[in-house]
Amino acid sequence: MRITASPRNVRPGLVLLVTAAAAFVAGLDLFIVNIAFTDIGRDFGGTSLSTLSWVLNGYAIVYAALLVPLGRLADRTSRRAGFLAGLALFTAASAVCATAPSVGVLVAARVVQAVGAAALTPTSLGLLLPVFAPERRANAVRIWAASGALAAAFGPVVGGVLVQASWRWVFLVNIPIGLVTLAATVRFVPDSRDPEAGPVPDLLGALLVAVGVGALALGLVQGNDWGWSDPRTIGALVAAAAAGGLFWWRNLSHPVPVVEPALLRVRSFAWANATSLIFSISFAATLLCAVLWLQQVWGESALRVGLELAPGPLMVPVFAVVASLLVKRRAGVGLITAAGCVLCGVGGVVLLTSIGPNPEYVTQILPGWLIGGAGVGLALPTILSSATADLPAGRAATGSAVVTMSRQVGTVLGVSLLVALLGTPHTYAEAHRAFQTGWGACALLALLAAIPALGMTPRRTLDPATRPVPAGAGA
User: Given 54, 96, 139, 368, which is the most exposed site by the fewest CB atoms within 10 A?
Assistant: First the structure.
């Protein structure tokens, strides 16, 4: 790797602070936008849930499609330029989101935000590693990744506080953080690149990912409104299948595919991606389901919802430490991940059997939410930290980006599936049945994720101090 600034002028602690801030703001965005969902819909004249879902899905689809190509492009040219461009775009798009006059403009701005996030996420880690001595890199990466967990823990509360003023503050908060981080990057962060990064992956293949996942999401979220036998719904699902088929054909034939088929022949990596996809469907749907139940059925304020959701994310870092200790004792990462998936499934079952018309958070929501949070803490960090352990060192970064792509695709499918299951209930009885079905589906998917998890234990012995950390671990 080549660092353009003189090593004498590099201050590793400041580089870590700058890159961790970027990971923090990207992670924060996910949770606070969920909290703002109901207020956004109310402000735009009671916009339907299916339309609002694109505020989340538009971001996740574009992020998933561009993460690998933009990360590889920055590796070949300039990581700092890629990071600055991505951060500037993310910050500018946040300003447009905050002033959006309609849902359409908001969704479009979220898509631009995603382009920025797809550029800044992998480059933040790429800029961090070269400035630390090899013996200090593992600790620096742990701090960088922990910033994402910190965002998850504080996101619901921060979102609740901001939405009390206006949902627009959810996006405005990104602007000062982005501007300070931009200035600090120019002043303190040296450039680097990977001269062996190779050509940029198949851009048409990345477009096919976006088209395929977007068409599938469209068919799912509009199925109830259009009708499942409507030509538009069928057309969307057919387009999704066609785009998926073309994407895989290009992966097999293109010299630089988005997802190298050889990587998927590595057993632990293939099973880790399957686990990440299924688990992320459950995770995204569960989070949105809880937000909508508390706000739209129980009628609670955004601040109260944020405070009530916070205990679940707070369990994640605690049980991530438990998972790390178990790995050190040579427990199989597949078994640890499967246990986390099962706990998430149990949490979903507890929720669907506990919820009722009278708001009783401590008895109806908190137990299942804590169980699910413990499960996420065991499963998600273990998936992220072990997925690439059996890959060649030169493919660890690409493999990590593919795992993150799987997570984002799962997020889109989770939100879309939940929207399809909830429909548009008009009475409490209809809402109760719909949300029970939603949480039941979340629980079933979490339990299903435990099956491929059992196959993801790497053949190599994992050393928590040296294992590769995925690009986008904090996103």
Answer: 139
Clarify whether residues 275 and 209 are in a common domain: no
Does residue 118 share a domain with residue 223?
no
Picking from 83, 332, 322, 66, the residue whose alpha carbon sits closest to that of residue 200 is: 66
Q: Are residues 166 and 77 in the same domain?
A: yes
> Domain total for the chain?
2
| Same-domain pairing of 136 and 77 | yes
> In terms of domains, do 343 and 250 share one?
no
Buried b (16+ CB within 10 A) or exposed e, 160-198: bbbbeeebbbbbbbbeebbeebbebbeebbbbbbbeebe
One domain, residues 264 and 119: yes
pLDDT by residue (tens digit) across 242-282? 999 999 999 898 998 888 888 889 999 999 999 999 999 99
pLDDT in tens, 120-133: 888 887 788 788 88
Consecutive H or E run containing 342: helix 333-354
Q: Kind of pairing, strands 2-3 and 192-193?
A: antiparallel
The pTM score is 0.88
The reply to whether 135 falls in a domain is yes
Are 372 and 413 part of one and the same domain? Answer: yes
Each residue's pLDDT tens digit, 324-362:
888 888 778 899 999 999 999 999 999 999 998 888 999
Q: At what angle do helices 396-422 and 366-386 cross, to 10 degrees?
A: 150
3-state SS, one letter per residue, for 317-332: HHHHHHHHHHHHCCCC
Q: Give the pLDDT band (50/70/90) at residue 210.
A: very high
435 in Cβ contact with 368 (< 8 Å): no
- We report the CATH number of the domain holding residue 378 as 1.20.1250.20
Contact assessment for residue 250 and residue 205, using Cβ atoms and an 8 Å cutoff: yes
For residues 298 and 475, is the Cβ–Cβ distance under 8 A? no
Concatenate the DSSP letters of all residues of 256-271 into one string.
Answer: S-SS-HHHHTSHHHHH
Q: How far is CA 439 from CA 331, 417, 430, 452, in A?
A: 30, 11, 14, 21
Domain assignment present for residue 404? The answer is: yes
Structure letter (DSSP) for residue 467: S
Structural domain including 111 reads 9-186+258-453
Whether residue 218 is found in the same domain as residue 97: no
By the 8 A CB rule, do 111 and 56 touch? no
In a domain, 469, yes or no: no
